[in-house]
């Protein structure tokens, strides 16, 4: 087997919005590595189909489908059942496909890039005597909470003081896997093992910027080998990307061009989350009663729940679309507030384009993200009571469009946006410098 050529193994976690950022990272790093570098991307068939259909023409990436744990002839599971079956099939499913990739290319792996969730990558890397680089697709705040799992679980108080956090956390801010009754379930077990093994990674890469959470990052650096914030990736990848006419079939940008500056409410809850019917109705009633200009990304099953006649009554000031070009919308001067589920990508995009947020978290790190957004970064509000009601939604909108507090939140997010832009500046931006360290780590290692 060839040992002088770089061959990078990319191990994806195939659920939520995990796999696509790993692909983005490959695209970002490949121009800085030798042109004959091989990239082998390991992911389930369904997830590969989904992400590569949106980003075709990846000639330099070899795609491998790992087994998703579903036995032939069985119905395709969804949600937590699908994750559990996949986790039960690891690590042997990855191991088998990785051997296939080495045999097929005739080139040994020189480095393993994996989603941080896939902690067993450290064992593969040790066996092969190559670096393991873990990619954490969320923020440093949630990474820190996972590393302090034992501390949190030993605490009987409702308020938590965690090293690196300037604000006290409540127990219900913590991701449920950290405080699960039993850490032996597939998901809690995976995340706990990750927390126990991340110090073995040669580097942890985050899609964030150091200036967002400086104290937490300092604490992480005291526990891990290298902590490399290289984001926001969206500010780098979108610098020279113009809106593709085909990606705005619903005419969102054309519609926004006709609206007043900072007057539009943009609502989107990601690709995984589904709002309960009562909350869809509550939002609709609030928007209609306030006659707020809005763009709402809502799939057909949600549209069916809207109050009768809502679409007709709001057509002069509102727009509902099945899919929205989020980056182009958030960067538009007409958008005044972003109503979000608080997934990390959405939060980072809101900050990167200077749009304050109204948060309605659902699962995972979203509750912690919304807590940070309101209490630490002070660039948004958590929705009153944790879910949408007509009156709570009206009060949140009034804060941004009719009150002094909204002005303060807008100024705060503008300041964070400037810090994000500084981090990705070509000349000594912190994220650019961290990215250079990452490239050297990957480039300099040859398998033995």
Structural write-up:
This protein has 448 residues and is an alpha/beta fold. 43% of the residues lie in helices and 15% in strands. The chain contains 20 helices and 15 strands. The chain has helices at residues 19-29, 45-54, 79-89, 92-105, 121-128, 140-147, 149-153, 186-197, 214-221, 233-237, 252-256, 277-290, 300-303, 310-313, 326-330, 344-352, 366-376, 390-402, 404-423, 430-443, and strands spanning 7-11, 38-44, 61-66, 111-115, 132-136, 159-160, 169-170, 203-206, 227-229, 264-268, 293-297, 318-321, 335-340, 357-359, 380-382. The strands form 3 sheets. It has a 7-stranded parallel beta sheet, sandwiched between helices. A 6-stranded parallel beta sheet has the order 12-11-10-13-14-15, with helices on both faces. Helix 9 links the parallel strand 8 (203-206) and strand 9. The radius of gyration is 22 Å and the shape is globular. Mean pLDDT is 92; it is low at 238-246.
Shape: globular
Round the mean pLDDT to the nearest integer and report it: 92
- Name the helicity range: 40-55%
Low-confidence regions:
238-246
Return Rg in Å: 22 Å
Estimated structural class? alpha/beta
N→C terminal distance: 11 Å
Number of alpha- plus pi-helical segments: 20
Strand tally: 15
Main sheet strand line-up: 3-2-1-4-5-8-9
Biggest sheet overview? 7 strands, parallel
- Which range does the strand content fall in? 5-15%
């Amino acid at each position: 087997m060839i040992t002088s050529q770089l061959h990078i193994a990319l191990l994806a976690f195939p659920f939520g919005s995990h796999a696509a950022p790993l692909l983005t990272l490959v695209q970002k790093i490949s121009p800085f590595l030798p042109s004959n570098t091989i990239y082998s991307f390991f992911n389930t068939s369904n997830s590969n189909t989904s992400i590569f259909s949106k980003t075709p023409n990846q000639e330099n990436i070899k795609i491998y489908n790992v087994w998703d744990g579903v036995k032939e002839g069985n119905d395709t599971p969804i949600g937590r059942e699908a994750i559990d079956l996949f986790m039960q099939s690891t690590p042997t499913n990855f191991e088998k496909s990785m051997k296939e990739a080495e045999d097929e290319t005739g080139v040994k792996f020189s480095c393993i890039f994996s989603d941080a969730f896939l902690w067993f990558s450290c064992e593969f890397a040790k066996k092969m005597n190559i670096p393991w680089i873990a990619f954490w697709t969320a923020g440093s705040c949630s990474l820190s909470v996972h590393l302090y799992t034992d501390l949190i679980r030993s605490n009987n108080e409702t308020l938590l003081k965690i090293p690196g956090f300037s604000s006290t956390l409540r127990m219900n801010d913590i991701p449920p896997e950290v405080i699960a009754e039993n850490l032996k379930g597939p998901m809690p077990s995976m995340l706990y093992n990750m927390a126990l093994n991340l110090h073995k990674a040669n580097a942890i890469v985050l899609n964030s910027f150091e200036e967002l959470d400086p104290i937490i990052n300092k604490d992480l650096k005291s526990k891990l080998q290298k902590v490399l914030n290289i984001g926001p990736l969206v500010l780098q990848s979108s610098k020279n990307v113009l809106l593709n006419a085909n990606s705005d079939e619903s005419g969102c940008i054309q519609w926004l061009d006709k609206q007043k500056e900072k007057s539009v409410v943009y609502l989107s809850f990601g690709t995984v989350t589904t709002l309960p019917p009562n909350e869809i109705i509550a939002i609709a009633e609030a928007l209609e009663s306030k006659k707020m200009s809005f763009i709402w990304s809502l799939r057909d099953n949600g549209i069916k729940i809207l109050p009768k006649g809502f679409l007709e009554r709001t057509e002069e000031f509102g727009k509902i679309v099945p899919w929205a070009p989020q980056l182009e919308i958030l960067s538009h001067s007409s958008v005044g507030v972003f109503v979000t589920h608080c997934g990390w990508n959405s939060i980072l995009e809101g900050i990167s384009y200077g749009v304050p947020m109204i948060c309605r978290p659902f699962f995972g790190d979203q509750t912690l993200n919304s807590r940070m957004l309101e209490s630490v970064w002070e660039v948004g509000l958590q929705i009153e009571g944790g879910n949408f009601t007509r009156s709570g939604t009206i009060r949140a909108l009034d804060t941004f469009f009719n009150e002094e507090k909204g002005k303060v939140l807008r100024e705060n997010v503008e300041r964070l946006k400037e810090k994000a832009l500084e981090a990705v500046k070509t000349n000594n931006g912190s994220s650019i410098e961290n990215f250079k360290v990452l490239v050297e780590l990957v480039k300099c290692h040859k398998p033995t």
